[in-house]
Amino acid sequence: MTPAGQYFYQHGQDLLANYNLLIDQTKQIGGREKDNYTLKLGYLRDFGTSEFLQAVTEFSKKYPEVKGRIHSGNHEELFRCL
To answer: CA spacing 20 to 30 A to 58: which of 6, 37, 40, 73?
Structure first.
């Protein structure tokens, strides 16, 4: 193997090891955060809610690990919640 090939091989191995470590640690962090997902939703209290609640129900069935917090209010109240 040429000196350039040896250099490339050695540093390539280091990069792959770091890459695998990065992936593993990211998965670990993501696993810990999985229980902490909260989706905060707001809707105008004057609008009908049946479609909104149906969408929330469907979302909750598809993503049970996500907790939901729903707030209704007028424009100003919802803006303050942002």
So the answer is: 73
Q: Output DSSP code: residue 10.
A: H
Q: Each residue of 8-48: pLDDT tens digit?
A: 999 889 888 888 888 888 878 877 655 567 888 888 887 76
77 has a pLDDT exceeding 70: yes
- How far is the C-alpha of 62 from the C-alpha of 67, rounded, in Å? 12
| Residue 65 near residue 34 (C-beta atoms within 8 A) | yes
| Coil/strand/helix, residue 20 | helix
Q: How far is CA 79 from the centre of its chain?
A: 23
- The answer, yes or no, to whether residue 54 has pLDDT greater than 90, is no
Q: Find tokens 């939901």 and name the residue.
A: 68
Nearest Cα to Cα of residue 75 among 33, 53, 38, 47: 47
The whole-angstrom separation of Cα 48 and Cα 55 is: 13
